[in-house]
Amino acid sequence: MAAHRYRQLLPAQLVVAPTVAASGARAPNSTVSVTTACGQELPSWLKFNPESNSFVAAAVPEGGLALSLVVTVDGVSTVINTRALGNAGK
């Protein structure tokens, strides 16, 4: 099976402060980090774009989206399962 493109935005409530939620902007000086659930770096084919608050991949290997990721925003961590987020091919 051929690899496909992937893009998934983070849920807004994970990356915005309540005072800026309406605009969808991240709070000034907030920090966002992403690791696998095991604490390792993301696979080389998956990137996190902090400007758009999204995960992007030009080519996802077969079975590659079965990942659990930890998104930490200003010290508060949330686990995201990419299988549940899929926007593959968009």
Write the layout of secondary structure elements.
Layout (H helix, E strand, L loop, with lengths): L3 E6 L2 H4 L16 E5 L10 E3 L4 E7 L7 E6 L2 E6 H4 L5
Antiparallel strand pairs: 1-4, 2-5, 3-4, 5-6
Summarize this structure briefly.
The chain has 90 residues and is mainly β. It starts with a strand and ends in a 5-residue tail after the last helix.
How would you describe this protein?
The protein is about 10% helix and about 35% strand. It has about 90 residues and is mainly beta. It has a single domain (about 5-85), classed as Immunoglobulin-like (Sandwich). The strands form two sheets. Strands 1-4-3 form a three-stranded antiparallel sheet, with no helix packed on it. A hairpin with a 4-residue loop joins strand 3 and strand 4. The longest helix is centred in the first third of the chain and has 4 residues, at about 10-15. It is globular, with a radius of gyration of 13 Å. It starts with a strand and ends in a 5-residue tail after the last helix.
Low-pLDDT segments: 84-90
Helix share of residues? under 10%
By CATH, the architecture is named Sandwich
How far is it from the N-terminal to the C-terminal residue, by CA?
Answer: 17 Å
Radius of gyration: 13 Å
What is the number of helices?
Answer: 2
Q: Could you please say which CATH topology applies here? A: Immunoglobulin-like
Mean pLDDT, to the nearest integer, reads 74
Query: Using DSSP, what is the number of strands?
Result: 6
In the CATH scheme, the class would be: Mainly Beta
Gross morphology? globular
Q: Major sheet, described briefly? A: 3 strands, antiparallel
Query: Can you tell me the CATH superfamily?
Result: Immunoglobulins
Q: Write down the secondary-structure element order.
A: EHEEEEEH
Q: Please give the domain count.
A: 1
> Strand portion, in percent?
35-45%
Largest sheet, spatial ordering of strands: 1-4-3
Given helix and strand content, the structural type is mainly beta
